[in-house]
Design a protein that fits this description.
about 260 residues, mainly alpha, 3-stranded antiparallel β-sheet, two-stranded antiparallel sheet, 7 helices, about 50% helix
Length: about 260
């Protein structure tokens, strides 16, 4: 996912949090955020002719509608693949090996992938990330296919190959409730913590080891001056950071989507 897209979505996440945060204005006008719970209305006291107080129950209220919190969609903004996200408070059966490879291939070869690879390649060329690729149309072509290969390679290791071998669940389980900081911490922690096929938590070896394996393999098709351990480490770290940012986007996407629907 492109860095510019991530930045735009994070701005919407902050706006969503500010719009939904309950506020309390104290005597001094301070706005302190509080966790509030609705209290039932006290029964009205009616005084009959004998002067005795009798209580009458308040009118019945309509039943609350089911919450849409944590409801994911198959795509973010109608474009970006979101096939591996699971609704909040939902537990799914274990993924089959076939399903793990299916999601890895979907994320690699979805139509949107070609678009965002093109954007990222353009940014890399504009900043001259790899001067040996040169400029012009030929240079852009080199940036493009290297970026595409990097993305597909990392997706298959992180989402398909290692989850199948290590029996890890490659899906993102949405927390969907709690304060902003708690949910952000949860999302970031998914880079290090994941679920096994049996539902237990475990170290996310597929993410950390898979991102490193993809970065190491990429050295095979980069020019010699970019095959150093430093360059491999940089690509490894970039892969993990982008995946972590993607987890945060997935966590808060249901909130952003709900705002869009309310405005619509």
């Amino acid at each position: 996912m492109d860095k510019l897209v991530l930045s735009a979505i994070f701005s919407m996440i902050l706006a969503s949090a500010q719009a939904q945060e309950p506020k309390y204005s104290g005597p001094n006008g301070s706005g302190l955020a509080l966790e509030t719970a609705s209290l039932p209305d006290a029964p009205e006291a009616n005084v009959d002719g004998s002067g005795q107080a009798s209580s009458s129950s308040s009118p019945s209220r309509p039943a609350e509608q089911p919450s849409s919190a944590g409801k994911q969609t198959k795509r973010i903004l109608g474009i970006l693949p979101n096939f591996r996200s699971v609704d909040a408070d939902v537990t799914l059966p274990p993924q089959s090996v076939r399903e793990k490879f299916k999601t890895g291939l979907q994320d690699s070869f979805d139509y949107s992938s070609f678009i965002f690879v093109g954007i990222q390649a353009g940014i890399s060329q504009g900043t001259k990330s790899y001067p040996a690729f040169h400029q012009g149309a030929a240079g852009y072509g080199r940036y493009y296919w290297h970026t595409f290969a990097d993305q597909a390679d990392e997706n298959l290791w992180v989402e398909s190959i290692l989850p199948a071998v290590l029996h890890e669940d490659s899906r993102y389980y949405t927390l969907g409730h709690g304060r902003l900081l708690k949910r952000a911490q949860y999302a970031v922690s998914r880079a290090l913590i994941t679920r096994t096929d049996s539902g237990a938590e475990t170290f996310n070896a597929a993410e950390i080891v898979g991102a490193g394996a993809a970065a190491a393999i990429s050295s095979a098709y980069y020019p010699g001056q970019y095959r150093t351990w430093t360059k491999i480490g940089q690509r490894w770290l970039t892969n993990v950071i982008l995946d972590t940012a993607t987890f945060a986007v997935k966590e808060f996407w249901p909130d952003i989507n709900a705002i869009f629907h309310r405005k619509g």
